[in-house]
User: Which sequence fits this backbone?
């Protein structure tokens, strides 16, 4: 089996982490590199990752995350937040992201126009904008979890939280929001069998 498929088989949503076992820092840093290298729509990299290590902060977050033990027991708690205001069309940030491709200024203007056309209906609604930037985070999180699995590091993606409460606890800057949370560490016990629909139930050829 390829290393990738082995990682896919290894990865489970870990419900019980061994609270004593820490991820070596070089390995965790390489997991963050995977986030950095992940693709994003128009290359806007809207993610702003918060790694929560402070035990008191973790405790406060746990109560806003359905009291899930993974929040306090995992080795590294990664919160994917997004900077939504900065990716609005026409901002200096967006221009810079296109300019860094080394394009002539007319080409940058063209990109700015295409981006504006695409984003205008999305950015008109704060929720749609937050969902758009959050989508990018899910890609980065998936990459991070699969890569972690190649290192035999467990993970649990977490959507079970009160968004407003988590945002208040983290005291996020205006225009920033929480997309998704992921806990990383080591399983405290064997994982249960992966349950999946059959391929023929989820794939059709036309
Ligand atoms: C976006 C997302 C959010 C999730 N949120 C939670 C969560 O809040 N708590 C939890 O224990 N598991 C959560 N899960 C894990 C799923 O329940 C789990 O992936 C699914 O049941 C399949 O099991 P497996 O990942 O172990 O194969 C989440 C998974 C995803 C992809």
Assistant:
């Amino acid at each position: 089996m390829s290393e990738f498929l082995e990682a896919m088989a290894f990865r489970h949503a870990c419900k019980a982490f061994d609270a004593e076992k820490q991820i070596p820092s070089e390995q965790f840093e390489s997991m963050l590199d995977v986030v950095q290298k992940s693709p994003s729509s128009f290359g806007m990299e809207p993610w702003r990752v918060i790694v929560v290590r402070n035990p008191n902060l973790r405790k406060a977050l746990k109560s806003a995350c359905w009291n899930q033990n993974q929040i306090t027991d995992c080795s590294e708690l990664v919160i994917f937040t997004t900077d939504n205001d900065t990716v609005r069309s026409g901002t200096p940030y967006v221009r810079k992201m296109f300019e860094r491709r080394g394009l002539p200024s007319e080409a940058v203007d063209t990109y700015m126009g295409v981006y504006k056309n695409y984003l205008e209906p999305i950015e008109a609604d704060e929720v749609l904008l937050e969902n758009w930037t959050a989508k990018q985070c899910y890609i980065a999180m998936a990459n991070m979890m699969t890569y972690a699995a190649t290192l035999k590091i467990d993970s649990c993606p977490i959507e079970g939280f009160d968004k407003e409460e988590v945002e208040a606890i983290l005291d996020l800057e205006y225009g920033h929001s929480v997309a998704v949370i992921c806990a990383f560490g080591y399983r405290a016990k064997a994982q249960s069998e992966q349950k999946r629909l059959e391929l023929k139930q989820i794939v059709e050829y036309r």
User: Anything to note?
Assistant: Strands lie at 47-52, 76-83, 154-158, 176-185. The CA atoms of residues 200 and 206 lie 13 Å apart.
